[in-house]
Amino acid sequence: MVYLVRTGLNYLLVTKDIWPEAEDPAKFMELNHIIAVVLGELYVIGFVSAIKLVLDWAIEKRRNEDLAKLQMSTELKYLRTQIQPHFFFNTLNNLYALTLKKSDNAPRLVIKLSNMMQYILYEVKSSKASLLKEIGHINNFIDIERLRFDDKVDSEMDITGNIEDVIVPPLLFLSFVENCFKHGMKENDNLRINMSFDISNNGYLEFTLVNSFNPKKTQDDSIGIGNENAKRRLKLLFSNNYILDSKIEGENYKLFLKIPV
Asked: What is the pTM of this model?
């Protein structure tokens, strides 16, 4: 049927010479001509079908990629919303402890907490943040803990390289610093914290954190969401292009993180 329609239209509308290879045009009904015409139509149908399949595959691939990006973005936002209540819960506990003791440091803590809330609620709105501001945020947090522990905190920070234009995931380092206070504070002893930020390694940021460690306190405390949250964020943001290593050496806990910037 396809052959008759195609050949008839070609004969009526295009040319009477529908089979130029044959000496006798009347032979257009022979098997050779039928096969030639059908194969030609199959080539056209196959070519058009291939284009359609490729276009459908490209559209579906793009749709799946968009869905994957949306899912990752949604999960990252969820993980970040976990950080904020977790942090404020701990800080409000600090404030409550100071008010019970009627400490003169309570008003200072309120101001520090207000500054941190302003940073988190108004300045951290995207998946990127200035490393300079993140370091300021960490210092603010350490100041709050100093008020809580009556200045029994010895903290040092080293910075190597120019950090003014460095962009990092927001609130990523805070969970590691929080763990210093959760697992490092000992009775009648100061908490020692040494951290460093080094961006001199060819587009990578190396973060090193060493703090005194209290094994007894680690056994008594329940496992928090901070570290697991940070690990999940690193996996989503950098896939396998990062290094996170932590270990206990004697009375010290050491953490090393390397991420691209």
From this structure: 0.65
Q: CA 131, CA 199: separation in Å to the nearest integer?
A: 11
Q: Is 94 helix (H, G, I), strand (E, B) or coil?
A: helix
Distances (CA, A) of 132 to 163, 209, 234: 6, 17, 20
Beta carbons within 8 Å of 257's beta carbon, 6+ residues apart: 173, 176, 206, 207, 208, 209, 234, 242, 243, 244, 245
- pLDDT (tens digit, 9 = 90+) per residue, 153-203? 889 999 999 888 899 988 889 888 888 887 766 666 788 899 999 998 788
Question: Would you call 51 exposed, middle or buried from its count of C-beta atoms within 10 A (0-12, 13-18, 19+)?
Answer: exposed
Cross-strand partners of 195: 157, 209
CA dist list (Å): 36 to 2, 6, 42, 101, 157:
13, 12, 10, 98, 81
The whole-angstrom separation of Cα 59 and Cα 56 is 5
